[in-house]
Amino acid sequence: MDKKSTKRDFTILDIHSHPNVIGGVPPVMKCMLSAKKYLDARWKGKSGQGTFEDLIAEFPPVETMVNDLVNNRVKSTPVAWDAETATGEPPCSNDFVAKITKEHPEAFLGGWGSVDPWKGQKALQEAERCCKKLNLIGLKFQQASQRFRVNDKQFYPLWDLCQQLHMPVQFHCGFTGLGSGGMGGDGIYTLSFTRPIDIDEVAADFPHLKIIALHASEPWPWEANMIAMHKRNVVRETSGMLPRYFPENMVYEMNRRLQDKFLFGSEWGYLPLEQIISQWEELDLRPGVMEKVMFKNAISFLGEEFERVRADLSPWKRNLEEV
Ligand SMILES: [Zn+2]
Questions:
Q1: Residues of the domain holding 195
Q2: pLDDT tens sequence across 230-251
Q3: CA–centroid distance, residue 240 to ligand 1 (Å)
Q4: Do 109 and 77 touch, CB atoms closer than 8 A?
Q5: Exposed/middle/buried for residue 160 (C-beta within 10 Å: 0-12, 13-18, 19+)
Q6: Is residue 284 part of a domain?
Q7: Is residue 128 domain-resident?
Q8: Has residue 5 got a pLDDT over 70?
Q9: What is the model's pLDDT at position 3?
């Protein structure tokens, strides 16, 4: 049944990974702890009590992430995460993401910042710092954990600023494994905050803001497809789910009308990289589509930003010249 793995002749460009490593703890550990206990009832951690601290102590060093990416021939762009107002937990900081991406060019092309939209003026200042001081590519938002709607007008100054700074944004779309199976979603708020149609309005109101609609967008994958088709400034992304479970209409349009509009994301930190890559090889994709999703579309959509952060695109030089 398993297709023989074909030898890949390109480096994968990953636009969404989580540095869930020492120093990069995400602001959703309370619900990650309940998920851990739910999935592995025998886990008790080092203390034998299965505490918050036990789970954090199990985070690997950054070198584990770096080696995994290098061994799988992937260059990634990790994301920071600030959801402090809603979860009460400290962020995976922009400084941390900026630091590891700078220190490990062998694995990283650059990184994505994150600001907590509820921090108002401070969020705006931090967004500007991410661009001008930390040299990050853009900003990533996770509306369910941050508890906000992207088309809520009180957050429009943030999109206005991102548009002015040429900072693309990543918006979470659809189902999230976070809080899954927990009572009331374990504090990870309503899935309706992640509905793609909200993004359509932002894309229309900020036509020069580049938007990456993350994940499979379930239960609204078709909605996400139509928005990416209608708005030139919106693309889709593939992380958050093993390829074997991709919704049919996502793969259908990836092969057809949206073959220039899907970017690869790995979700490193939550999903095993090797398994993701081998399942991509099992997808029934038309010739050339894999290369588009795995690096070409990202380079063409984010070319200007990669240039701004001086990302080293040499791993794709030969592939791009062949076209
Ligand atoms: Zn993610």
A1: 16-322
A2: 999 999 999 999 999 999 999 9
A3: 6
A4: yes
A5: middle
A6: yes
A7: yes
A8: no
A9: 47
Radius of gyration of the chain (CA): 19
DSSP per residue, 170-219: EE--S--STTTTSGGGGG---GGGG-HHHHHHHHHHSTTS-EEE-S--TT
320 CA from centroid of ligand 1 (Å)? 28
Q: In total, how many domains does the chain have? A: 1
Residues facing 17 on adjacent strands? 78
Q: How far is the CA of 321 from the centre of ligand 1 (A)?
A: 32
What proportion of the chain, given as a percentage, has pLDDT over 90?
86
Residue 2 lies in a domain: no
| DSSP symbol at 294 | I
Count of all residues that appear for the chain in the document: 323
Mean pLDDT of 258-281: 96
How far does the centroid of ligand 1 lie from the alpha carbon of residue 26, in Å? 10
* Ligand 1 centroid from CA 171, angstroms: 10
For residue 163, the CA-to-ligand 1 centroid distance in Å is: 22
CATH of the domain at 169: 3.20.20.140
In a domain, 6, yes or no: no
Q: Which residues contact 13 (CB under 8 A, 6 or more apart)?
A: 74, 75, 109, 264, 294, 295, 298, 299, 316
